[in-house]
Amino acid sequence: MSNENQTFLRHDWSQIERVFYMTAPAPCPYLPNRTERKLITALDHGDDEAFDALSWSGFRRSHEIAYRPACPSCNACMSARIDIASHRPSRTHRKIINRNADLTRSVHVNECTPEHWELFDRYIRARHGVSEMALMTPDDLRMMIDQSTVDTGLLEWRDREGALKACMLFDAMEDGLSAVYSFFCPHEARRSLGTFCILDTVEHLKLLNLPKFYLGYWIKGSETMAYKINFSGVEIHRNGSWTPVAPEPSSS
Q1: What mean pLDDT is reported for the chain?
Q2: Is residue 4 classed as helix, strand or coil in its secondary structure?
Q3: Of 139, 194, 203, 128, which is closest to residue 167 (Cα–Cα)?
Q4: Closest CA to 76 of 247, 231, 228, 248
Q5: What is the pTM of this model?
Q6: How far is Cα 192 from Cα 231, in angstroms, rounded to an integer?
Q7: Contact 158, 164 (CB under 8 A)
Q8: Which of helix, strand or coil describes residue 219?
Q9: CA nearest neighbour of 216 among 62, 87, 80, 84
Q10: What's the CA gap between 146 and 139, in Å, rounded?
Q11: Which of 17, 21, 14 is nearest to 70 (CA)?
Q12: What is the mean pLDDT of residues 171-197?
């Protein structure tokens, strides 16, 4: 068991009635020749305090469970978050913000609509055409968006004509927001919409006076997850605490 997992298991959960389960070994979907296991626990409706505590310990939510990697010989997966006060957009990021000046952000309840499905379907077919995600149905997306035990919502970005360009499902926390999943128009590469959604959510959190933006797992060695440390103000959860890291040089 890795040091990170040992640190979590030493955490004092004695005051919380909670049962944890370990999943069976499975091939890692991110790194070759690795085996994945997860520590999971059920989430109760309205138990926001426990959800926050789990998130601060490196867990993520999926539907009605919280999970975190517990791989026996690997600790490459580490939770990442942006410290809003420390964030400074790079020159590249400022250009991305300017390219999307025509987009307007709005907040909505977590209710899946046909418009969400149409955008999501285009996104997964373009980005995940040979993966299991490409097999998702409208009901699968509806469950992902609607099924939550905590305070969950949607951020939407629309152009001046009202066309939906990007969407982020998020969980609300005491100290910020946790990004669950983002999808966006896949054929407007110049906009860099995935990066823009993160940058603009940082601005949203500034308006709310909330200090943290949780991005999910950064996986060292995974190209698809590399972008998560390409922002200033990023902190990584390891060995039981959050540690600031420097952004990659390519983002400056």
Answers
A1: 89
A2: helix
A3: 194
A4: 228
A5: 0.88
A6: 14
A7: yes
A8: strand
A9: 80
A10: 10
A11: 21
A12: 96
